[in-house]
Amino acid sequence: MSTESIKEAVREKYGQAALRVATGGGACCGAGAAFAGGADPITKDLYDARQTTDLPQEALLASLGCGNPTALAQLSPGETVLDLGSGGGIDVLLSARRVGPTGKAFGLDMTDEMLALARENQRKAGVENVEFLKGEIENIPLPDNSVNVVISNCVINLSADKDRVLREAFRVLKPGGRFAVSDVVVRGEVPAGIRRGIELWVGCVAGALEESEYRAKLAAVGFEAIDIEPTRVYKADDARRFLAAQGADVDAIAPLVDGKFMSAFVRAKKPVKGYAR
Ligand SMILES: C[S@@+](CC[C@H](N)C(=O)[O-])C[C@H]1O[C@@H](n2cnc3c(N)ncnc32)[C@H](O)[C@@H]1O
User: Fold this and answer.
1) Residue partners of 3: CB distance under 8 A and separation at least 6
2) Cα separation of 32 and 244, whole Å?
3) Ligand 1 within 6 A of 268 CB?
4) What would the pLDDT profile of 186-217 be if each residue is shown by its tens digit?
5) What does each C-alpha distance from 217 to 20, 132, 247 come to in angstroms?
6) Which atom of ligand 1 is least distant from the CA of 91?
Protein backbone atom coordinates (compact mmCIF):
# COMPACT_ATOMS: atom_id res chain seq x y z
CA MET A 1 0.00 0.00 0.00
CA SER A 2 1.49 3.37 -0.99
CA THR A 3 1.08 6.49 1.13
CA GLU A 4 -1.18 8.01 -1.53
CA SER A 5 -3.40 4.95 -1.88
CA ILE A 6 -3.86 4.80 1.90
CA LYS A 7 -4.79 8.48 1.94
CA GLU A 8 -7.29 8.00 -0.89
CA ALA A 9 -8.91 5.01 0.84
CA VAL A 10 -9.16 6.98 4.11
CA ARG A 11 -10.67 9.98 2.34
CA GLU A 12 -13.22 7.83 0.57
CA LYS A 13 -14.25 5.94 3.68
CA TYR A 14 -14.70 9.06 5.80
CA GLY A 15 -16.38 10.99 2.97
CA GLN A 16 -19.00 8.27 2.86
CA ALA A 17 -19.30 8.23 6.65
CA ALA A 18 -19.96 12.00 6.63
CA LEU A 19 -22.67 11.63 4.00
CA ARG A 20 -24.37 8.87 5.98
CA VAL A 21 -24.67 11.18 8.98
CA ALA A 22 -25.75 14.14 6.85
CA THR A 23 -28.54 12.11 5.24
CA GLY A 24 -29.74 10.67 8.56
CA GLY A 25 -28.40 7.18 7.84
CA GLY A 26 -26.43 6.91 11.07
CA ALA A 27 -22.68 6.49 11.32
CA CYS A 28 -20.62 3.39 11.47
CA CYS A 29 -16.94 3.30 12.27
CA GLY A 30 -14.38 0.78 13.37
CA ALA A 31 -13.38 -1.69 10.69
CA GLY A 32 -16.29 -0.91 8.38
CA ALA A 33 -19.52 -2.55 7.39
CA ALA A 34 -19.40 -5.11 10.19
CA PHE A 35 -20.13 -2.29 12.60
CA ALA A 36 -23.26 -0.91 10.90
CA GLY A 37 -25.90 -0.68 13.60
CA GLY A 38 -23.69 1.02 16.15
CA ALA A 39 -22.17 -1.98 17.91
CA ASP A 40 -18.62 -0.75 17.29
CA PRO A 41 -16.61 -1.46 20.44
CA ILE A 42 -14.14 1.35 19.63
CA THR A 43 -16.55 4.23 19.06
CA LYS A 44 -19.54 3.48 21.29
CA ASP A 45 -20.34 5.46 24.47
CA LEU A 46 -17.38 7.83 24.44
CA TYR A 47 -19.15 10.96 25.64
CA ASP A 48 -20.98 11.64 28.85
CA ALA A 49 -24.50 12.98 28.24
CA ARG A 50 -23.74 16.00 30.48
CA GLN A 51 -20.89 16.94 28.18
CA THR A 52 -22.97 16.91 25.02
CA THR A 53 -26.39 18.31 25.96
CA ASP A 54 -25.80 21.62 24.17
CA LEU A 55 -24.37 20.08 21.01
CA PRO A 56 -26.33 19.38 17.81
CA GLN A 57 -27.35 15.71 17.62
CA GLU A 58 -25.56 15.43 14.24
CA ALA A 59 -22.21 16.28 15.89
CA LEU A 60 -22.66 13.40 18.31
CA LEU A 61 -23.87 11.02 15.59
CA ALA A 62 -20.82 11.90 13.50
CA SER A 63 -18.41 10.95 16.29
CA LEU A 64 -15.97 8.37 14.92
CA GLY A 65 -13.30 8.64 17.58
CA CYS A 66 -11.84 6.17 20.03
CA GLY A 67 -11.63 8.38 23.11
CA ASN A 68 -12.67 11.69 24.61
CA PRO A 69 -9.57 13.91 24.44
CA THR A 70 -11.21 17.07 25.73
CA ALA A 71 -12.30 15.26 28.89
CA LEU A 72 -8.68 14.29 29.60
CA ALA A 73 -6.84 17.33 28.27
CA GLN A 74 -6.19 20.38 30.36
CA LEU A 75 -7.77 23.34 28.47
CA SER A 76 -7.93 26.87 29.84
CA PRO A 77 -9.84 30.02 28.86
CA GLY A 78 -8.04 32.05 26.20
CA GLU A 79 -6.07 29.11 24.76
CA THR A 80 -5.83 28.01 21.12
CA VAL A 81 -6.59 24.36 20.39
CA LEU A 82 -6.06 22.42 17.17
CA ASP A 83 -7.89 19.14 16.47
CA LEU A 84 -6.07 16.95 13.91
CA GLY A 85 -8.65 15.13 11.76
CA SER A 86 -11.66 16.91 13.23
CA GLY A 87 -14.35 14.89 11.39
CA GLY A 88 -17.87 16.08 12.23
CA GLY A 89 -16.38 18.52 14.74
CA ILE A 90 -17.50 17.19 18.12
CA ASP A 91 -14.16 17.70 19.89
CA VAL A 92 -13.67 21.12 18.31
CA LEU A 93 -17.06 22.29 19.57
CA LEU A 94 -16.35 20.89 23.05
CA SER A 95 -12.91 22.57 23.06
CA ALA A 96 -14.38 25.91 21.95
CA ARG A 97 -16.63 25.90 24.98
CA ARG A 98 -13.68 25.16 27.28
CA VAL A 99 -11.38 27.88 25.92
CA GLY A 100 -14.23 30.41 25.88
CA PRO A 101 -14.73 33.51 23.72
CA THR A 102 -11.15 34.72 24.23
CA GLY A 103 -9.78 31.41 22.97
CA LYS A 104 -10.07 29.62 19.65
CA ALA A 105 -10.55 26.05 18.43
CA PHE A 106 -9.33 24.98 14.98
CA GLY A 107 -10.39 21.75 13.31
CA LEU A 108 -8.28 20.36 10.47
CA ASP A 109 -9.54 17.71 8.05
CA MET A 110 -8.76 16.66 4.47
CA THR A 111 -12.22 15.32 3.59
CA ASP A 112 -14.64 17.81 2.02
CA GLU A 113 -17.77 16.00 3.18
CA MET A 114 -16.51 16.00 6.79
CA LEU A 115 -15.68 19.70 6.62
CA ALA A 116 -19.18 20.47 5.30
CA LEU A 117 -20.73 18.45 8.13
CA ALA A 118 -18.50 20.09 10.74
CA ARG A 119 -19.33 23.61 9.50
CA GLU A 120 -23.04 22.78 9.56
CA ASN A 121 -22.66 21.49 13.13
CA GLN A 122 -20.85 24.70 14.09
CA ARG A 123 -23.73 26.74 12.62
CA LYS A 124 -26.31 24.69 14.54
CA ALA A 125 -24.29 25.00 17.75
CA GLY A 126 -24.02 28.78 17.26
CA VAL A 127 -20.35 28.78 18.25
CA GLU A 128 -18.13 31.55 16.88
CA ASN A 129 -14.65 30.87 18.21
CA VAL A 130 -14.22 27.92 15.83
CA GLU A 131 -12.62 27.56 12.42
CA PHE A 132 -12.51 24.41 10.29
CA LEU A 133 -9.50 24.29 7.97
CA LYS A 134 -9.05 22.07 4.95
CA GLY A 135 -5.71 20.30 4.87
CA GLU A 136 -3.62 17.33 5.80
CA ILE A 137 -2.26 16.57 9.23
CA GLU A 138 1.10 15.86 7.58
CA ASN A 139 1.25 19.49 6.45
CA ILE A 140 -0.62 21.63 8.98
CA PRO A 141 -1.69 25.00 7.53
CA LEU A 142 -0.81 27.01 10.66
CA PRO A 143 2.35 28.93 11.64
CA ASP A 144 5.10 27.69 13.97
CA ASN A 145 4.50 28.16 17.73
CA SER A 146 0.86 29.19 17.32
CA VAL A 147 -1.18 26.63 19.31
CA ASN A 148 -1.39 25.80 23.04
CA VAL A 149 -2.88 22.32 22.70
CA VAL A 150 -2.99 19.76 19.88
CA ILE A 151 -5.82 17.27 20.32
CA SER A 152 -6.88 14.46 18.00
CA ASN A 153 -9.29 11.55 18.21
CA CYS A 154 -8.44 8.35 16.39
CA VAL A 155 -6.71 9.91 13.40
CA ILE A 156 -2.92 9.63 13.77
CA ASN A 157 -3.17 5.84 13.36
CA LEU A 158 -4.68 6.49 9.91
CA SER A 159 -1.66 8.39 8.62
CA ALA A 160 0.93 6.60 6.52
CA ASP A 161 3.56 9.15 7.64
CA LYS A 162 3.29 9.41 11.40
CA ASP A 163 6.76 10.91 11.88
CA ARG A 164 5.74 13.83 9.75
CA VAL A 165 2.44 14.28 11.64
CA LEU A 166 4.28 14.36 14.97
CA ARG A 167 6.89 16.80 13.60
CA GLU A 168 4.09 19.07 12.40
CA ALA A 169 2.27 18.89 15.74
CA PHE A 170 5.52 19.82 17.48
CA ARG A 171 6.15 22.71 15.06
CA VAL A 172 2.75 24.39 15.53
CA LEU A 173 2.75 24.01 19.32
CA LYS A 174 4.01 26.93 21.37
CA PRO A 175 6.93 26.17 23.71
CA GLY A 176 5.31 24.48 26.72
CA GLY A 177 2.36 23.43 24.53
CA ARG A 178 0.55 20.12 25.10
CA PHE A 179 -0.05 17.14 22.84
CA ALA A 180 -3.25 15.47 24.14
CA VAL A 181 -4.43 12.78 21.76
CA SER A 182 -6.73 9.75 21.82
CA ASP A 183 -5.57 7.02 19.48
CA VAL A 184 -5.57 3.27 18.91
CA VAL A 185 -2.29 1.82 20.17
CA VAL A 186 -0.88 -1.71 20.03
CA ARG A 187 0.73 -3.44 22.97
CA GLY A 188 3.19 -6.12 21.79
CA GLU A 189 3.28 -7.95 18.46
CA VAL A 190 0.23 -8.53 16.27
CA PRO A 191 0.03 -10.99 13.34
CA ALA A 192 1.48 -9.51 10.14
CA GLY A 193 -1.73 -10.33 8.20
CA ILE A 194 -3.62 -7.79 10.30
CA ARG A 195 -1.18 -5.07 9.31
CA ARG A 196 -1.79 -5.62 5.61
CA GLY A 197 -5.56 -5.16 5.33
CA ILE A 198 -6.68 -1.81 3.92
CA GLU A 199 -10.15 -2.27 5.46
CA LEU A 200 -8.48 -2.66 8.84
CA TRP A 201 -6.25 0.35 8.14
CA VAL A 202 -9.16 2.69 7.37
CA GLY A 203 -10.96 1.21 10.39
CA CYS A 204 -8.19 2.53 12.71
CA VAL A 205 -6.67 -0.88 13.45
CA ALA A 206 -3.91 -1.85 11.00
CA GLY A 207 -2.05 1.48 11.15
CA ALA A 208 -1.91 1.68 14.96
CA LEU A 209 1.56 2.22 16.41
CA GLU A 210 3.06 -0.08 18.99
CA GLU A 211 3.24 1.66 22.38
CA SER A 212 7.03 1.89 22.65
CA GLU A 213 7.29 2.97 19.00
CA TYR A 214 4.80 5.80 19.69
CA ARG A 215 6.93 6.97 22.62
CA ALA A 216 10.12 6.77 20.58
CA LYS A 217 8.62 8.76 17.70
CA LEU A 218 7.35 11.48 20.05
CA ALA A 219 10.75 11.70 21.75
CA ALA A 220 12.55 11.79 18.39
CA VAL A 221 10.75 14.98 17.32
CA GLY A 222 11.53 16.63 20.67
CA PHE A 223 8.53 15.99 22.95
CA GLU A 224 9.06 15.39 26.66
CA ALA A 225 6.86 14.16 29.55
CA ILE A 226 5.45 11.44 27.29
CA ASP A 227 2.73 9.27 28.78
CA ILE A 228 0.42 6.66 27.23
CA GLU A 229 -2.62 5.82 29.35
CA PRO A 230 -4.93 2.98 28.21
CA THR A 231 -8.61 4.00 28.20
CA ARG A 232 -10.07 0.78 26.68
CA VAL A 233 -8.33 -2.53 26.07
CA TYR A 234 -9.94 -4.76 23.42
CA LYS A 235 -10.48 -8.42 24.14
CA ALA A 236 -10.70 -11.32 21.67
CA ASP A 237 -14.47 -10.81 21.29
CA ASP A 238 -13.96 -7.19 20.24
CA ALA A 239 -11.23 -8.29 17.85
CA ARG A 240 -13.67 -10.70 16.22
CA ARG A 241 -15.66 -7.68 15.15
CA PHE A 242 -12.61 -5.90 13.65
CA LEU A 243 -11.61 -9.03 11.79
CA ALA A 244 -15.02 -10.08 10.52
CA ALA A 245 -15.08 -6.97 8.33
CA GLN A 246 -12.08 -8.26 6.46
CA GLY A 247 -13.29 -11.81 6.01
CA ALA A 248 -10.28 -12.94 8.04
CA ASP A 249 -10.01 -16.31 9.77
CA VAL A 250 -11.61 -14.91 12.89
CA ASP A 251 -11.35 -18.02 15.06
CA ALA A 252 -7.63 -18.39 14.38
CA ILE A 253 -6.60 -14.76 14.68
CA ALA A 254 -8.86 -13.25 17.37
CA PRO A 255 -7.19 -15.13 20.27
CA LEU A 256 -3.77 -13.93 19.07
CA VAL A 257 -4.72 -10.27 19.44
CA ASP A 258 -6.57 -10.61 22.76
CA GLY A 259 -5.67 -7.56 24.88
CA LYS A 260 -3.18 -6.22 22.33
CA PHE A 261 -5.20 -3.36 20.84
CA MET A 262 -6.21 -0.51 23.06
CA SER A 263 -7.59 2.98 22.88
CA ALA A 264 -5.21 5.21 24.75
CA PHE A 265 -4.71 8.81 25.76
CA VAL A 266 -1.29 9.97 24.60
CA ARG A 267 0.19 13.02 26.31
CA ALA A 268 3.42 14.88 25.73
CA LYS A 269 4.82 18.40 26.08
CA LYS A 270 6.90 20.63 23.86
CA PRO A 271 9.76 21.85 26.05
CA VAL A 272 9.58 25.47 27.12
CA LYS A 273 13.05 26.18 25.83
CA GLY A 274 16.10 24.51 24.43
CA TYR A 275 14.23 22.20 22.07
CA ALA A 276 16.31 21.00 19.16
CA ARG A 277 14.49 22.61 16.21
C1 LIG B 1 -11.84 8.17 12.54
S2 LIG B 1 -12.35 9.73 11.94
C3 LIG B 1 -12.30 10.69 13.44
C4 LIG B 1 -13.02 12.00 13.34
C5 LIG B 1 -13.09 12.81 14.63
N6 LIG B 1 -11.79 13.05 15.19
C7 LIG B 1 -14.00 12.15 15.64
O8 LIG B 1 -13.55 11.85 16.75
O9 LIG B 1 -15.16 11.95 15.32
C10 LIG B 1 -10.94 10.29 11.04
C11 LIG B 1 -11.03 11.69 10.46
O12 LIG B 1 -9.71 12.11 10.13
C13 LIG B 1 -9.66 12.62 8.82
N14 LIG B 1 -8.30 12.31 8.32
C15 LIG B 1 -7.73 11.10 8.20
N16 LIG B 1 -6.47 11.19 7.76
C17 LIG B 1 -6.22 12.50 7.59
C18 LIG B 1 -5.09 13.25 7.14
N19 LIG B 1 -3.97 12.63 6.78
N20 LIG B 1 -5.18 14.59 7.08
C21 LIG B 1 -6.34 15.23 7.45
N22 LIG B 1 -7.44 14.58 7.87
C23 LIG B 1 -7.39 13.23 7.94
C24 LIG B 1 -10.77 11.92 8.09
O25 LIG B 1 -11.20 12.68 6.99
C26 LIG B 1 -11.82 11.79 9.17
O27 LIG B 1 -12.66 12.91 9.23
Assistant:
1) 160, 161
2) 9
3) no
4) 998 887 777 777 677 777 778 899 999 999 99
5) 35, 27, 32
6) 8
